[in-house]
Design brief:
Mean pLDDT: 75
Strand content: under 5%
Distance between the termini: 77 Å
Radius of gyration: 25 Å
Oligomer: single chain
Number of helices: 2
Helix content: 55-70%
């Protein structure tokens, strides 16, 4: 397939844009929701405290 020299930068830019868009949907390995993690810890602490007082 022959692509003209004029269109090659355009196709490269489109391919790079598509790749960047797709990469934004890939989850990070260390992606955590710190707010919910803090709530889970506080809920676990509250349960432990209520169990000790019973």
């Amino acid at each position: 397939m022959y692509v003209s020299v004029v269109r090659r930068p355009l196709l490269t830019a489109i391919a790079a844009g598509i790749l960047l868009c797709l990469m934004s949907f890939v989850p990070s390995a260390n992606a955590t929701n710190e707010h919910s993690a803090g709530q889970q810890r506080s809920a676990a602490t509250a349960q432990a405290d209520s169990a000790e007082s019973s």
